[in-house]
Amino acid sequence: MRRLAGVVKMDEYSEWLSRVADLTLEQRQIVFYALIVVVSAEASEERPPSRDAHVCSVPSSTMPLSARIDIVPTATIEFPKTNLQTLSTLTLVCEQRIAHNGCPHCGEPDVIRWGRASQLQRYRCTECKVTFNALTGTHLAHLHLKDRWSKHAQSMKTGESLAKAAERCDVASTTAFRWRHRFLAALANDKPALLVGIVEADETFVLESFKGKRADIPRKSRKRGGKAAKRGLSIEQIPVLVARDRTGSTIDAVLPKLDTASITAVLGGIINQSNELCCDGGKGIVGFARKFKIPYHILPAPGGPSPDAPELHINNVNGYHGRFKEWMRPFHGVATKYLPNYVSWRRTLEALGKDSLPGDWIAGAIGLGPYQQKSQ
């Protein structure tokens, strides 16, 4: 805003203030952050930062990194000249990880700031004396073009193809592919520790695919997204197990075999005798329930509840299967070796909801996904 004799004109101020309600949540956070910097500078009798790049110290007690995290003491934040919004989001997420995890080498929570490099704050552990940044040890370490990560996160939210994601971020398709799977690698392990109450479990099947493989294919190649050679279940159909409770918390996994041992490896310790398990009578799931003495109910296909117990059904998990299959359709087949990443991608979309912000996806990519956030 223009200033007159050091004071903003009242009509300009009133107009600006009236439009604050139209800002998105992320835009409000950045405005709030900028105001805190100015107030803190005035309180310490320092000159507020200009629009160019400057370094300023912000007390952690007032620094609005996030409403749901604890803040590490004393923050030195640099205002970059390019794409302030994206890099501010990354700064908030990185501070969040340091506050939660401390030193990535020894776990010591007491760390001190140790300069800056590659647009990131560096730290030094007071215990092991090793220096690091907030991305050290994560799947995003050593990736470049950090100012475009928010755009890539937006493409993850909308489920864009690689070509569209590359165009949005103005990068090569190979870079978009690498970013996609780096983002998804950490989310593959972000699952709830326990499911509560009534749990629905069922499997769905995805056609085996060697998409992208140019040699040593164990069968004749077919057009991507094609049909299996045999009708019904066969070794060409890859089982994907999904278990959901009534709060929406979801466990999923690509199974090597549809048997009790494989299901136990996924659900063991997550579903226990305090739960009620609803299923369609599959031998693997029933065998798992009997092995651990979990109360279970076999529902007739397609999972319709009985009048005597309308709360017992598998409609939620079947609905999830339908949304997953429809969401996968635009990809025209996914290579089986990458299928676990796409399964976790869908789970994260459901967990974050349609109002998710780019910072939520970046946080998940460095190990602070939605389920881990709930457990902390």
Summarize, please.
The protein has 12 helices and 12 strands. The chain is an alpha+beta fold. The N terminus is likely disordered.
Structure commentary:
With 376 residues, the chain is α+β, with helices and mostly antiparallel strands. It folds into 3 domains: 19-137, no CATH class; 142-187 and 355-376; 198-334. It is 37% helix and 16% strand. It has helices at residues 10-18, 25-43, 84-101, 149-158, 162-169, 173-187, 260-267, 283-291, 315-328, 339-352, 358-365, 370-375, and strands spanning 3-4, 7-8, 55-58, 75-78, 111-117, 120-125, 131-133, 198-207, 237-245, 250-254, 276-279, 296-298. The chain has a 5-stranded mixed sheet, with helices on both faces. The chain has a 3-stranded antiparallel sheet with strand order 5-6-7, with no helix packed on it. A two-stranded antiparallel sheet has the order 1-2. Strand 9 (237-245) and strand 10 (250-254) form a beta hairpin. Helix 4 crosses helix 11, helix 6 packs across helix 10 (339-352) and helix 7 packs across helix 8. The longest helix is centred in the N-terminal third of the chain and has 19 residues, at 25-43. The radius of gyration is 25 Å and the shape is globular. It starts with a strand and ends with a helix. The model is unreliable at 1-6 and 43-84 (pLDDT under 50).
